[in-house]
Amino acid sequence: MESLELEQLVKKVLLEKLAEQKDVPVKTTTRGAKSGIFDTVDEAVQAAVQAQNSYKEKSLEERRNVVKAIREALYPEIESIATRAVAETGMGNVTDKILKNTLAIEKTPGVEDLYTEVATGDNGMTLYELSPYGVIGAVAPSTNPTETLICNTIGMLAAGNAVFYSPHPGAKNISLWLIEKLNTIVRESCGIDNLVVTVEKPSIQAAQEMMNHPKVPLLVITGGPGVVLQAMQSGKKVIGAGAGNPPSIVDETANIEKAAADIVDGASFDHNILCIAEKSVVAVDSITDFLLFQMEKNGALHVTNPSDIKKLEKVAVTDKGVTNKKLVGKSASEILKEAGITCDFTPRLIIVETDKSHPFATVELLMPIVPVVRVPDFDEALEVAIELEQGLHHTATMHSQNISRLNKAARDMQTSIFVKNGPSFAGLGFRGEGSTTFTIATPTGEGTTTARHFARRRRCVLTDGFSIR
């Protein structure tokens, strides 16, 4: 046999063998040695499409193994992840970010969240199941970049999708590092590359291109109202997590010592950059002084000097009436230093008594400054809290032993998360029951998102059978 004929025969046999293998690893066009990182949005999305075409053939058990692999591989990296995030963004603190990333790894639901529904009767059986969308386009913030990436990757891959991330440029390095690590973990678990992808240079333009890419059917946006609105204009299905301004109500029946400790814990956690954190306190007059005293006992600095309050206002809020981004996620000590205010201890939180119209109460500061608004009774407390929440329907907390009041506040506030007698972060499953999420989709109605929200509900009907009643 001639050498040319032999070569052709070998090629033919090899191609036939490859065709028989359903799960041949997808060819990667990843740049250099960086797993999942591409030069262009289109290259990344096309690679993710190819990867998801293979991934959708995997069993649920194989998806469970992928989720398990992510959890196990990231545990040893938690401190490094937290340290890198703080070093790059300058927001929050390492200790609390370790807790947040641990929460994302441990309490984000996986495949178990994909429930099945069935209806049977004389005419047969109807089955409802949750199937993947394909490639999800996701925007991640700079405030909680790593927690969002971990949480969403677990949920999206559990639902059978691939994901293209558009991280915030302010958290570029930690985001790319983590996306590369996630993609590598997934590839080593299931043999498929490019299920978690992004571009080398994240930008607003890249995010816009992702939103309009024809191969991206679902957008998951964790960011401010501007980027959520932009995503909605794409004409695609959008899961949008917007802003919040969570108030905390304290009435005269509350356990004031516990309420004070919980509020300081929640409002100071990671320097208040969580969107669910207490942004204001509305307290009934008869217990306000004792509440302030107890908050001080728990590490809050109560600023009472009018000139100092003005100094704080000047550095925290710009002339345009918006948050000073330079101080977002900074510690109370750093904010005091910027304002030129001295303090003889290291405060966890700054508290200021204000009226309901003060910028500290109306602007989502995302820093450890919390106004306390004094009101005569519960009815006015609820009215003021609703006003301060501004119809965002994101998060609220309340401290009371009166069940009917707790119920009324929960009904009237209509928030995605309502925490009773606990710190705000209990609403994410930290020191509280239930799963966690870092994408709270209030504008689009999903609320606390999990794997089931990243899947399509499909209906399959079998007539004349499968009913044994």
Automatic annotation (TrEMBL):
InterPro entries: Acetald_propionald_DH-rel, Ald_DH/histidinol_DH, Ald_DH_C, Ald_DH_N, Aldehyde_DH_dom
Signal peptide per UniProt: none
CDD domains linked to this entry: ALDH_EutE
Ranges for domain Aldehyde dehydrogenase: 39-423
Species of origin: Listeria welshimeri
MF terms in GO: acetaldehyde dehydrogenase (acetylating) activity
Any one Pfam family match given in the protein's UniProt record, by short name: Aldedh
Keywords associated with the record: NAD, Oxidoreductase
Annotated protein name in UniProt: Aldehyde dehydrogenase EutE
Origin organism lineage: Bacteria, Bacillati, Bacillota, Bacilli, Bacillales
ATP-binding in keyword set: no
